[in-house]
């Protein structure tokens, strides 16, 4: 009898207990947009080893790809802007990161920096639990717009350098040489065929004029 009373009292207590604030807090908009198409091991720390994103031995193809820049210590911290003078979350990101204001994501789709770097404070991209960490970037960031994005997809160079700049020859040789090849190819084709088309048109015009004069005489 006593046990039954205890059980009933416990059930009543559970029915009327108020949930904690953390339990009632609504999910953020960024988390609601998750696709849910990924297994647990795709996003947990340590899964980066499951995917071969960079070859162990550089061959001729990988050696002309984007070169890994020197990683700063702030890339591993919970707050990448810690210690930065005059930093304020109210300032525009492009005031300091001016070279990122012309990226394709910004210029074409008007994507804001905080849509990808959504942590507050903004954690370094190599911080263990950062959404931008390569082990989960495809699921936590890319997949919000690109459904089903894979780790290989997330290796795309978002902040691409100016393909015509000489500095790109060192940081991204493939992009530099491919762009200049197409520029030279297009320029060479136009330099040859535009004068050819003009001269051809003049020849046809002169022949028509001469034909009229010959028929008139």
UniProtKB/TrEMBL annotation:
Keywords from the named record: Membrane, Signal, Transmembrane, Transmembrane helix
SUPFAM superfamilies membership: Multiheme cytochromes
Name listed for the protein in its UniProt record: Uncharacterized protein
Recorded superkingdom: Bacteria
Transmembrane feature ranges: 174-202
Listed InterPro entries: Multihaem_cyt_sf (IPR036280)
Leader sequence segment: 1-24
């Amino acid at each position: 009898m006593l046990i039954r009373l205890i059980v009933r009292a416990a059930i009543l207590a559970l029915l009327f207990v108020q949930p904690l604030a953390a339990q009632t807090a609504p999910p953020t908009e960024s988390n609601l947009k998750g696709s849910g198409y990924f297994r647990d091991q795709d996003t947990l720390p340590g899964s980066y080893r499951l995917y071969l994103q960079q070859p162990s031995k550089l061959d001729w193809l990988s050696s002309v790809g984007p070169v890994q820049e020197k990683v700063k210590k702030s890339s591993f911290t919970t707050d990448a802007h810690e210690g930065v003078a005059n930093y304020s979350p109210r300032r525009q990101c492009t005031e300091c990161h001016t070279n990122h204001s012309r990226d394709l994501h910004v210029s074409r789709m008007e994507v804001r920096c905080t849509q990808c770097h959504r942590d507050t404070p903004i954690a370094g991209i190599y911080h263990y639990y950062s959404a931008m960490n390569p082990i989960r970037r495809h699921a936590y960031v890319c997949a919000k717009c690109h459904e089903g994005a894979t780790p290989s997809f997330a290796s795309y160079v978002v902040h691409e350098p100016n393909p015509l700049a000489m500095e790109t020859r060192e940081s991204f040789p493939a992009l530099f040489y491919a762009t200049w090849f197409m520029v030279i190819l297009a320029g060479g084709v136009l330099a040859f065929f535009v004068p050819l088309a003009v001269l051809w048109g003049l020849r046809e015009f002169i022949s028509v004029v001469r034909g009229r004069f010959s028929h008139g005489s």
